Structures are given as structure tokens and as C-alpha cells.
Amino acid sequence: MGSGRVSMGTDPKATVERYLQALEDRDYEAARACLAGQGFRYESPIASYTRAEDLLDHAMVGGSIVQQRQVVKCFVDGPDVCHFLRYCIQLSDKQQIDLAHWAQVEQGRILRIVAIFDAYAYWSMFEDLEPQGKPCKSI
To answer: Would you say which domain of life the source belongs to (predicted)?
Structure first.
């Protein structure tokens, strides 16, 4: 970061990258250490959570489909860190999923994550399950 005075413990980009690496390593304890205890929020096309533990429970179950993760680009604006990621996942066949992962970091912990991706492959696994529409709201 610009001045080089931000410690590794509070550098937003380093925090988010530690979290993403912990998920890739399936080290959920290390991933949990990167997430805020109070006020945490996660939103994506397939799930929303207000507790970090619920997100990690979901990651433990769904993480087995991830074959590979590639960082395409990362942008940082103060506490906001946005990664464009490319995942190779295995459902019935291998598929590439491009995903935008926007994290907001406060006091060295991720307070909010918004993941944006095309969830068609996920929803198509469930015949009788339709994606739920979300009402418009401000960010």
C-alpha cells in the first residue's frame, strides 16, 4: 500500500488474501480468524449469512466442488478489496465460474463479503428449486 506503514495484521488486501488462501487450503480455523465476530454479513446469488460460522459451514460442504482458483485481478480502495476470481468447479462436469468477491475490512477483519457470479449451474442441480428473487435495496 502507498506509505508501507500499514501492518500485515490490518492491511485489508493481506487480510482478504489470507482468508481466500485459507479457504483454498480448507483451513477453516484460519479462515474464521479473518472474519469479524460482530456485524458480519455475506451475500451471494445462492446464500446470505449474518454469522461467519454459517458461511464457513457452507464452505466446508461446498468447498469439495472447487478444483482450482485463479486470481484474475485485485483492486483495493481503502478498506474495500475486490478480487475477480476464476474457479474451476466439478459438478456433473467441470465448469469455469467467474466471480467478483468484494470484501470490506475493518480493524483487520472482514466485516462484509458480497460475491457476484452466475449461479445458473448451481440452481440447475435442483429440479424443483427456483432461485429466490431479492427485493431491491441500497448497498
So the answer is: Bacteria
What pTM was computed for the model? 0.80
In degrees, rounded to 5, the angle at the alpha carbon of residue 70 between the alpha carbons of residues 68 and 73 is 165
| pLDDT grade for 3, boundaries at 50, 70 and 90 | very low
pLDDT in tens, 73-126: 999 999 999 999 998 877 667 778 889 999 999 999 999 999 999 887 777 766
**What is the chain's percent helix, strand, coil content, to nearest 5?**
25, 35, 35
For residue 104, list its beta bridge partners.
80, 112
Q: What cell was used for 48?
A: 446470505
CA 122 to chain centre: 16
Distance of CA 55 to the CA centre of its chain: 9
